[in-house]
TrEMBL record, chains A, B:
GO terms for molecular function: glucokinase activity. Belongs to the ROK (NagC/XylR) family. Transmembrane segments: none annotated. It holds the Pfam family ROK. Keywords: Kinase, Transferase. The keyword Transferase applies. It comes from Kaistella antarctica. This is Glucokinase. Its EC number is 2.7.1.2. The gene is glcK.
Length: 330, 330
């Protein structure tokens, strides 16, 4: 029996977002051999999307490894279910209902395909190639347009009974608080700590403080990037926007720590560009709300991976990881 | 090679509380062959406690199975650490600091000893012999003098990085809310949903409603049992005490569901005697705060096991379960 040269084996990592899809061919060392993207919303029909992806990727497979060394496909997508390989009721995708995405991919590419939600994929990427290397217990929080999460416990992603575990952005941090623009829930973490939530906070606070630099902008131009610029220029209102956001985030993180007692919490996504403006108050309010046995133990760190790369790497890592209990082959 | 007759194998389950310790010899079918107890607080020195336990238990071992068929000891105790077999800084025990309890037990009894905290032991008991039979993902909440929890994910207890995961009683349900009498935290689940919390709520509410039956009692006689008696007699204030408690509990449960997406939440402990007075509002407010994909999926049920038996059974189950990753033999 010939030994397989693992270094020649390649996986395809795909990160599907509402607007863009990014993909990359990845080897066993976590090196992205080549990457590309296509517009998700150009394809109202899922089969057309898969066909277009195949046309882009198959020449790369031939170039880098050939079908024989092509091990499989890992996909991160919103509302993707690890157990069933389906995308279910994703609000930001054209493909409605329950889409058997993994099965359709395998039929086209003739290799196994595994899926999970985008934040879980990023958590896997961090464990295998990023800031969480060597860790078995950590929580990944993505702070972007929304707030997502991936929870690693004992070296395994927590999928829960139905494959949808880890929706920490929708946990309530302030009962009866800010109404979420889409879910209608009151006081969820996402309503405060997402880029969208920061924009809402900024609009409220600049109305209270007429001298704030934030008032030099049109209402429609206010966003988390503008708040960051004003904060770096020393605007106290902009700094307070991040402090308040960090407080709400830190209070939520304390509850997460008391659930799964992780070694670290990794923060990821566009909002972390705010740096210490958000990290310091988050750390302060996390520690303040922790039960004593958990204090000064949990690292709160930013992701080390480039955002686009992390998603591709994490998705590709699905191909080589052990299958979690509950995984169903179709 | 002779086959081992599993039905003859016996384990000792021990449940250590601040005041009382209960123990039982348990066979593989989850039948308690004989049980007993001793006063924990009669023994300021841990070795004296272990010697006394040995003197009580060793005649039973000889009677039922003999040392050859005695497989081991499982212990549930406050602040017990599964990984290290130690009891650490337990506020309600005489034994201070870090006590190497499992090692001391093994030295005395000459069989392996495994430990976990009391709520985790109860969760194991429910999975093997109670309402969670066949479930791989569930959360156990114990509502007693305090609020404890055990979290089962993928058929394994979540221990976390340090062995202390699952302190859900200390998660904050109302930021800036009621100050906890012992930890000093503000607005924790335990401050509202424990028997102690219910007593505080009842004292506040009866002051607001002079006509309440609760005002027929002396201040020091108010407790959750009295509130239950008044509720069954139709006192609206007593009913409101449980409704408010159930609301706070339900809001917390919603957050727990969005973390680990369990098949069921099991409630356990003295407070569940309040029945539907607390279960109905808990269910209502859990569902109301859930992200849509989790709604109407999670069973909210009471434990099926007798309280004393559950702890003994759960502790004994440690002996026969697979060792979780991270378990360290000393």
């Amino acid at each position: 029996m010939a030994l397989i040269d693992l270094s020649r084996q390649v996986a395809l990592g795909v990160d599907i977002g509402g607007t863009n899809t990014k993909y990359g061919l990845v080897n066993h060392r976590g090196e992205i051999l080549e990457k590309g993207n296509l517009k998700t919303d150009d394809f109202p029909e899922v089969q057309d999307f898969i066909n277009a992806l195949y046309d882009k990727v198959s020449p790369l497979i031939m170039k880098y490894c050939g079908q024989r060394h092509f091990d499989g496909i890992g996909v991160g997508a919103p509302n993707a279910n690890y157990f069933t390989g389906t995308i279910e009721q994703a609000p930001n995708l054209h493909w409605k209902g329950v889409v058997p995405f993994a099965r359709l991919m395998t039929e086209k590419f003739e290799v196994p395909c595994k899926m999970t939600n985008d934040a879980n994929a990023a958590a896997l990427g961090e464990m295998m190639f990023g800031a969480a290397r060597g860790m078995k217990d950590f929580i990944m929080i993505t702070l972007g347009t929304g707030v997502g999460s991936g929870i690693m416990s004992n070296g395994q992603l927590i999928y829960g009974h139905d494959g949808f575990a880890g929706e920490l952005g929708h946990t309530i941090v302030k009962p009866g608080g800010r109404k979420h623009w889409s879910t209608g829930s009151e006081g969820s973490l996402e309503a405060y700590a997402s880029a969208t939530g920061i924009t809402i906070t900024a609009k409220k606070m600049r109305a209270e403080f007429p001298n704030s630099m934030l008032n030099n902008y049109l209402e429609e131009d206010i966003n988390s990037k503008v708040v960051y610029e004003c904060a770096t220029k020393g605007d106290p209102t902009a700094i307070e926007v991040f402090r308040y956001t960090g407080q709400k985030l830190g209070e939520a993180l304390a509850n997460f720590v008391m659930f799964s007692s992780p070694e670290a919490i990794l923060l990821f996504g566009g909002v972390i560009k705010a740096g210490d403006f958000i990290l310091k108050p988050a750390k302060l309010h996390m520690e303040r709300n922790l039960f004593p046995i958990f204090r000064n133990k949990v690292k709160l760190v930013f992701s080390e991976l480039d955002e686009a790369d992390a998603a591709i790497l994490g998705a590709s890592a699905l191909v080589w990881e052990n299958e979690s209990p509950g995984f169903r082959k179709y």
